[in-house]
Amino acid sequence: MATHWFSPPVYVRTDRPGVTYGCNNVEGAAEELMKWTERGPKWNLAVQACTDAFEGRVSPRDVRKAFEAAAEEEGVLRSSG
Question: How crowded is the C-beta side of 23, counted as CA atoms within 13 Å?
Fold first, then answer.
């Protein structure tokens, strides 16, 4: 399976203290979403966007937007790496 890249990366706080992850692809976004404990409405939309991207129904850019919104909702969004 090809990696579905997007740019610029979305930077999120990880479960490791002091570590920020710069997510720049759909696969990474999907993996990161599965680690989060809060799963609100924007999380659900981001997971669905990842699934849709894997099936060719939405672009990686759409996933980036949904992932960024979910990260903000989760409280893990960082402004930069």
Answer: 30
**Residue 1: its pLDDT value, please?**
59
Quick check: 17 and 45 in contact, CB under 8 A? no
Establish if 55 belongs to a structural domain: yes
Helix (H) or strand (E) holding 16: none
In a domain, 16, yes or no: no
Phi, psi of 20 (to 5 degrees): -110, 140
Q: What angle do CA 53, 57, 63 make, to 5 degrees?
A: 40
pLDDT digits (tens, 9 = 90+) for 13-23: 998 999 999 99
